[in-house]
Structures are given as C-alpha cells and as structure tokens.
C-alpha cells in the first residue's frame, strides 16, 4: 500500500520565510561565504541586503538562497557574471515553485 503524504506533510511555513532576516555574520556561517565576498556581491548588485544606512547588513531567505547558489556555481568554475545569470534563472523557477506550493497549502 502506497503512503501518500498528508496535507500536514506538505505544509511549508511561508510566513516564517517571509520574516526570516539574518545578519551578515550568520549568513557567512550558514553559507560558508566570507563576509567580504558577500559585501562585494552586494556592491555588484547581485544580492541585496535590507540594511538601513549605517546599520548592519541583514539578508532575507531569498538572498541567502542566492548566495548559496552563487557559491556553488563559482566553486564549479563559473565566472561571477555567468553564475549571476544562472542564479537569476534558478530563482525565477524557485519563486514559481514556492508560489505553487503556497497556493496548494492555502487550499
């Protein structure tokens, strides 16, 4: 007999992801990317923090995911520009998938 996942198994805490904001030090710990490189990628406009002028950089879930994807591609030998393009396309796919999951969870 096949075990189908229940609605609870498919639940995903979208509210938590929307509220998740992490400082640059924690992002570095989570991703293994040095803070200096994170700042550089932000200066290039590839990722974006939610920092206010003069305050610590803080990053949301989407930017943490971008950092992880960028790191993976750069480690594989892609240039930062090529990795950035690939990450943009992947993020579009991820956003569509998350929107679909959220819609199903709301039903």
From TrEMBL:
<protein>
    <submittedName>
        <fullName>MerR family transcriptional regulator</fullName>
    </submittedName>
</protein>
<dbReference type="InterPro" id="IPR009061">
    <property type="entry name" value="DNA-bd_dom_put_sf"/>
</dbReference>
<dbReference type="InterPro" id="IPR000551">
    <property type="entry name" value="MerR-type_HTH_dom"/>
</dbReference>
<dbReference type="GO" id="GO:0003700">
    <property type="term" value="F:DNA-binding transcription factor activity"/>
</dbReference>
<keyword id="KW-0678">Repressor</keyword>
<keyword id="KW-0238">DNA-binding</keyword>
<keyword id="KW-0804">Transcription</keyword>
<feature type="domain" description="HTH merR-type">
    <location>
        <begin position="24"/>
        <end position="89"/>
    </location>
</feature>
<dbReference type="GO" id="GO:0003677">
    <property type="term" value="F:DNA binding"/>
</dbReference>
<dbReference type="InterPro" id="IPR047057">
    <property type="entry name" value="MerR_fam"/>
</dbReference>
<dbReference type="Pfam" id="PF13411">
    <property type="entry name" value="MerR_1"/>
</dbReference>
<keyword id="KW-0805">Transcription regulation</keyword>
């Amino acid at each position: 007999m096949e075990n189908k996942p229940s609605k609870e198994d498919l639940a995903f805490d979208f509210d938590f992801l929307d509220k998740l904001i992490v400082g640059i030090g924690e992002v570095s710990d989570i991703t293994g990317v040095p803070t200096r490189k994170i700042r550089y990628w932000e200066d290039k406009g590839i990722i974006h923090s939610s920092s206010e002028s003069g305050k610590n950089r803080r990053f949301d879930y989407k930017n943490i995911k971008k950092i992880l994807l960028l790191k993976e591609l750069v480690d594989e030998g892609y240039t930062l520009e090529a990795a950035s393009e690939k990450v943009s396309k992947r993020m579009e796919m991820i956003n569509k998938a998350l929107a679909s999951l959220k819609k199903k969870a709301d039903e």
